[in-house]
User: Fold these one by one.
Assistant:
Number 1:
Amino acid sequence: MRSIPLAVTAGLALFAAAACSGGGDLPAADQMLPDAATAMREVENVRFDLAVDGDVPGLDVKAADGVITADGSAEGTGTLTAFGMDIEAEYVIIGEDAWVKGPTGGFQQIPVGDDMLPYDPTLLLDPDAGVATLLEAVDSAEPQDTEEVDGTDTYRYSVEFDPAAFAALIPAEGDWNAATVWFDQETSRVVKAEFSQGDATVTLLLTDYDRDVTVDAP
């Protein structure tokens, strides 16, 4: 599996101080973030939707969606930048192998990391570099408000992640480690995360947790 060293998390006192600065009846950050990390480590599969608005150096993807599994498989569609062009493609990933189908022709087998698949979405559930690891590598967090996201009641937090942990998950150049994150009030799982820098925004939606999913090679 792809891995990074676990970043040193901030002390509980820092979380508690942040939690006292706002958020009303939201759980304290030192409760919410560890609960969310634990919940995300138990996820077997999830549907994701990644949208990039604006220019994000280092991330050659305009949009991507699909299903990912904790065992390193995924399938879906995306708009990627390759060879100076935006290309609509379908993809399947099983471990270290991937298949991509462009606007014409059938599926081509390629290695993960090829220019035709510049982002590996299976990282989102990777035990060493995924969302759970990111939630364990937090420099500060502050509760903001409650909010409904696509019919789900959530808690909204502003979170600053360790830059190294964030860079392993989403390879965007620059300071993209500050985010707004929405957590499911019932399960503590991540529902939405939004990262912004200048006029550019990266938005990640996670839905349909732990459905009956099978990913097969094309």
Number 2:
Amino acid sequence: MGFKTLDDMDLAGKRVLTRVDVNAPVHDGVVTDDTRLRAIAPTIRDILAHGGKPILLAHFDRPKGKVVPSMSLSQIRPALEAALGVPVEFVEECVGEAAEKASQKLAPGRALLCENTRFHPGEEANDPAFAAELAKLGDVYCNDAFSAAHRAHASTEGVTFYLPSCAGRLMEAELKALEKALTAPERPVIAVVGGAKVSTKLDLLGNLISKVDQLVVGGAMANTFLLAQGAQIGKSLAEPDMLDTARDILAKAGKAGCEIILPSDVVAAEAFAANAPHVVVPATQTPDGSMILDAGPDSVAELARRFEGAKTLVWNGPLGAFELTPFDAATNAAALKAAELTRAGELLTVAGGGDTVAALNASGAAKDFSFISTAGGAFLEWLEGKTLPGVAALSR
């Protein structure tokens, strides 16, 4: 790996300026899901165990450079304290005299949470002067927010010019999992990509066909590929203006030695609704008045066989309308098969993306996957082969 971790840093007596993601859902001032808060606990505990003083930087929502009281991180503090298991102090600024004094006076065994970095326009502008002010709060910089690593902001990229920098435990785990999945994977590698539109995942598909051995295209995206091959798809969601692009992707995949796998049979219904009357038909023969809402049982059986022959699986996007019963069947069955192979030590499974995480959680398979990223945009940009500024900065 081309970056330092907490293990490479002398933290004793040092203020460790730590970029975290605490964008937890809040209702009436109370955190309703502390998953992201608990995820940073290993980093904070390690910093404290090595004698460091964690000074936490984070953003919350989109205040666009202005102070918005409803977006204050003060409302996160009680839940953060509970999740970390250590006292968390709060300072109503992230730069300036008050923040500097709070960072200097922080007692051992405690953490300090600074106010929303996005209350300042210099954060998203990656203003060097603002980054330099942030740097005054620490002696060492630690980035534990992979989810914000695709943004070149002052607290994710700019501050690394002023302090010795490293990755936190969550960032380290994410990067190691991603490296195992695509950078240096055990082959064969199979990728599952679902979603509604080919047009939103062109970069992703273009990068994956050069990295994986087999690419499963599911969801409504698959409809466009089927239509491009002359299939009858009824009134299914598709992008007719992307047919040439789909054919181009198929051709490039062939040249790259990547096999693209489309559904062989589908589940079609006349209405987009839970428990709508439905039929299983060949993927090329959807009735005129029906729409494809899921992959069929033969397609699922073929996926199971493919998974059994693979060593690495990367997953982004569901195979059907997973939010509607019973059109979640293909996604659930494929996810549970991947989980079974992961438990047996036969398959490395890495997944990410909002719908993907929701679908894997709903199926009950998430707990057995090797790694599930909650990073959203950063995970997708990594799949697209893009350089993530917050990660690249740690290798400076």
Number 3:
Amino acid sequence: MNISDEAVKKIRGLIIFAAIIIACFWKYDVVISVLAFIFHVIFPFVLGGAIAFVLNVPMNFIQRHLFPEDKIEKRKVIKKLARPLSMLIVLFCVIGIIVLVMFVLIPQLGNTFANLGNSIQAFIPKIQKWAETLFHDNKEIMNWVNHLEFDWNKIMNAGINFLKNGAGSVLDSTIMAAKSIVSGIATFFIAFVFAIYILLQKEKLSIQAKKVLFAFVRKGRAEATLEVLSLTYNTFSSFLTGQCVEAIILGCMFVITMSILRLPYALLVGIVIAFTALIPIFGAFIGCVVGAFLIFMVDPIKALIFIVLFLILQQIEGNLIYPHVVGSSVGLPSIWVLAAVSIGGSLMGVVGMLIFIPIVSVVYALFREVVYLKLKQRKIDPADIT
């Protein structure tokens, strides 16, 4: 029986692939350590790519609106400076947000925690009086409530003792802590420089990547790969833009309405909800719990008002704002959004919640195209299936 050269190549490839898989399972600990080392080496560049992707969305928006190509086509100097200027504007905006958080949010957080002890101490007599009215017949509950006390100094001392003793293995070595800080700063600096280079040279890098792809992959597969990458980029950028805009709108709504209703911590709660709202579905509820707790320590009635306000604004956000701002940018049914958030949160925490919705959306879109293609091949009209 004659075997063609093409079949021999496929058999050889399958044998090599099977040998590699067997070796990986046999020495899996070595494989894991090698992969961990490789990831440690390339992590600054992966982080830089992620930073570049995030910054590229607002940079494209600014460049498209402040420096439209049809108006700067003949102005070579402006055309050459359009991208660096757009990038500088984005960087100044990011620095402005960081400064706002450092000089507005952090001091207010400090004052809040400084006054939290006094608020709890003042609230304990109210709890005791309320419990006396409800549970005056229950001696065990009344005994526990009457002995209820709060000593902020004891709590602080307990926390300090825990850091000295319970977490001593982490904090004992000052040199190790300093090395970690220096390593983190160096990693971020390399990632940031790499991100800037990507943003300034993205067309050139894109052309180089396409040349490599077409050089080593068949034309049809290379074109299909580019289509998938384009779909992935559009989905991620649309989701990121919509989620950020939606979070800002929701945070502003809370700051304004809480200020009108004279609820405490309006700015702090609004900023916390804006940040937590970046987490799809569950995020805003985390901010609600934090805000309700802070307000409850001041006035339980106002905390109840805040919860009612949250439910109202959440309905407005979910039914009016989110569909128009984010809309069908991810093109994913609600049940799959919930599944993506749950799976992403289980695997990668908060980061997984953020990235799994676009990932699942891309997979969903590709699978839908395959399904429609199969139906077309079988001469079945999708509209006829009900």
Number 4:
Amino acid sequence: MIDLTEDWLPTQAEFDRFAEVSGDNNAIHVDPAFAARTGFGHTVSHGMLIYTKLWGMLRREHPTLRQVSQSMMFPNPCFAGEPVVLRVTGTAPGTLTLVAYRRSDEAELLLAESEVAR
């Protein structure tokens, strides 16, 4: 049974580094002045950065797991400086649920299901 939970405090530096690695330099992620003029009001995390944090947490505990398929959605933005809870649970044999939510208001930032194998 898998049941993992961690806290994460996203930073603008992480957003910037992920943009460099991924090539996704969209201003909403890396330009605070631009983002301040949007409906978000702040830069927002790349969705895949959140997923990467969850997958990294899982792999630290279960290094032989490999992903077979995934589905995910990002219902709310993730901002730098706002504490996030990361959670991975086994919901059925070979199926994991991955969730990230803001600690302050429990707004869901990422909802995902992943099929895994060893």
